[in-house]
Amino acid sequence: MIATVPDIDTASLDLEERMSRDEIEALQLRRLRHTVQYAYERVPHYTKKFDDHGVHPSDLKELADLGKFPFTTKEDLRQTYPAGMFAVPMNQVARIHASSGTTGQPTVVGYTKTDLDNWATLAARSLRASGVRPGDKVHNAYGYGLFTGGLGAHYGAEKLGCTVIPISGGQTERQIQLILDFRPSVILSTPTYLLTIFDAMRASGIDPTHTSLRHAVLGAEPWTEEMRREIEVSGNLHACDIYGLSEVMGPGVAGESVETKDGSHIWEDHFRPEIIDPVETTRVLGDGEHGELVFTSLTKEALPIIRYRTHDLTRLLPGTARPGMRRMGRIIGRSDDMIILRGVNVFPSQIEEIALRIPALSPHFQLEITRPMHMDQLAVRIEHREGVSADDARSAGQELTRLIKIHVGSTCQTDVVEPGSLARSNGKLRRIYDLRNKEQGDLYVRR
Question: Could you tell me which residues come within 8 angstroms of residue 61 by beta carbon, excluding any fewer than 6 positions away?
């Protein structure tokens, strides 16, 4: 039985969390007008971009007018490397984070002291929504350093009044030892790395359901409801999502409520979300329609961001636990994660969702794409669970192939392998290995 959900004291919520939809939108419009003018005046890249697009901050008279303004992309940040998108002089920048730059020039983001305080507040708000309470011990297995995950979650937990164990990612055996020694009630990590920790516990004779952990706040990867059930049953805990990306802020842009577990509420007092058609028109879509998520910051000083294309594919839904704030639906994938296989769009999350419906199969899988005889071929390599016979594993693989064909529309080869055969996550997990353009190696790099 999973641990009980902690009570929410509505008086402890931030004022903005208690606002009505009308109040939120009025606040957004005031802050949006300021941000667009601020970016135009202080960031030469935005001055030129707006002018070239034939739009001026004075054109923003209502929220829908945001659609008149040009998009910002990762390429804008790369072209202005290292600090060309900053709106304040460097002596006012309190901290810098950056991407790894594995696909080209790194993207750099900066924060003033006010930005850092807002970030900590929103990360704390997200953790509290997910069931974390002041006084909890929080085991933080997100990566520290230039990546925003570790420090963003760390300062949010401290702001909430928690004790933080800053282990970072990797060193799985040490992670387990610290969990046993310090008995934290909360763990922060990617969903696949938490499964890695659970696997390592079982291999050491430790039952993950009998640890002190009662809440997992998981992010940095798309994950499915099937993965949530896998994690909650495996660890006897509540698993909630936290969303963020460095270019917009970091973890804490949105957070999921433990009471409802129905998608992350976007903290719309600080961010204005849109959903656009990512392929044909880039037009703004209505609530409930699937498309690419776009964000505009409303309060950032060092790096205001206007209509940033995230590449995350989701939809906007009415608020529930926080009625004034809209929710994100589950991220079904990324437009740059999408595999186009003989005309069929395939996302790793689709494979995960189908595989976890088959009891003999585990959540550990890889997708390999090859091009024998000039025809794209998808192979799914997936581990069976412990104790599954060879015949049952073979049947499970056949069933996975059949269900992928039915629900995704693509033919694939399935290779069911022994438990522990595939690489484990030490943070973000690579799922896709695209081998179409060379005989060996991995051409796919997550952007």
Answer: none
52 with 45: CB under 8 angstroms? no
User: What is the 3-state composition of the chain as percent helix, strand, coil, each rounded to the nearest 5?
Assistant: 35, 25, 45
Percent of the chain with pLDDT over 70: 92
Only one residue has tokens 């703004």, namely 284
Distances (CA, A) of 25 to 242, 269, 336: 23, 8, 31
Beta-strand pair 308-314/291-297: antiparallel
Q: Is the dihedral of CA 179, 220, 409, 288 positive or negative?
A: positive
Confidence bin at 342 (pLDDT 50/70/90): low
> What does the block give as tokens for 45?
């890249």
Helices vs strands, H then E, count in the chain: 10, 21
Q: Minimal CA–CA distance to 192: which of 168, 151, 233, 224?
A: 224
Q: Which residue type, as a one-letter code, is found at position 27?
A: L
Q: What is the pTM of this model?
A: 0.84
Distance of CA 297 to the CA centre of its chain: 17
Q: What are phi and psi of 191, to 5 degrees?
A: -60, -40
Q: What is the pLDDT of residues 161-209, one digit of tens each?
A: 999 999 999 899 999 999 999 999 999 999 999 999 999 999 999 999 9
Taking only the tens place, the pLDDT of each residue in 263-312 is 999 999 999 999 999 887 899 999 999 999 999 999 999 999 999 999 99
Residues 115, 122: Cα–Cα separation, whole Å:
11
Give the whole-angstrom CA distance, residue 287 versus residue 446. 28
Phi (first) and psi of residue 152, to 5 degrees: -60, -50
Q: Is 28:56 a contact under the CB 8 Å cutoff?
A: no
User: Could you give the C-alpha distances from 321 to 19, 159, 203, 216, 232, in angstroms and in order?
Assistant: 12, 22, 39, 19, 21
Three-state secondary-structure class, residue 38: helix
Give the pair of three-digit tokens for residue 331.
Answer: 């991220």
